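User: Quick sanity check before I run a bigger batch. Here is a single chain. Can you write out its predicted 3D structure?
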Amino acid sequence: MSAAPPPPPGHVLPAPAVPLWRHPEYARGARDMLATSLGIGAWGLITGVAMGNSGLPVPLMVMMSLLVYAGSAQLATLPLLMSGAPVLVVWATALCVNLRFLIFSAQWRPYFVHLGRRKRLALSYFMADLNYVLFMRRFPEPKPAPEQLPYLLGGATTNWLSWQVPSILGIFFAESVPAHWGIGFAGTLALLGVGLSLVSDRTTALAGVVAGCAAVAAYALPLKMNILVAIAAAVAIGVLMDHAGPKKPARAQAVAPPPPAPGGPEDRS
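Assistant: Done. Predicted structure follows.
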């Protein structure tokens, strides 16, 4: 078997592909998510404790934590599972609670549409609320870039571990965590802090106020539908503000003035 011919002079061999986890943006994404890991862990622990006190089999609860990976859906469907509700009712409840991810995925599409369908389906498992918030703050322009996927996966790794480890610990040690600790409020504070850090202009501030008012006004809706109402209200007011804002003036074209006509006003004495 003959050896491969040497490259021609001046030819530069392509650099070997760097694993995503060694990319600098992977570390940056993981560090950014660390700021909210305490709140995420608190939510995960509370969800795990709720599942641990539900009376469901432990293997089923662990599988639910690993596969569902959505605290609001898990808490909303737990009473249905405990009461023996039909599977279709459980699925419909989880779908309604998580409808906000439909909006999130539409916002993510311009960044990852170039990836294959299987890769995008795999990414969808890791895409959570805070991943969306931090990613959009890091990459406000909706266009693909090589550093976006490492950043997303770095944050997703921290988020997944911050959620799953306390959640599974809560399942196994549910009786050891007193409810009066109120540690679930730490998750609310984490979300509030990240949300406030995104307020950079009048449009985002108004959208945040409208979303908060809409969430409170629609709080009585079942299945946490007030979350979807708040998101829709925020998107609507943001689009309205963008269209109602001052338009950028069109760039004026430099046109040379016509020469004065002979016998015109300039020639009159």
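The radius of gyration is 27 Å.

User: Great, the batch can go ahead then.
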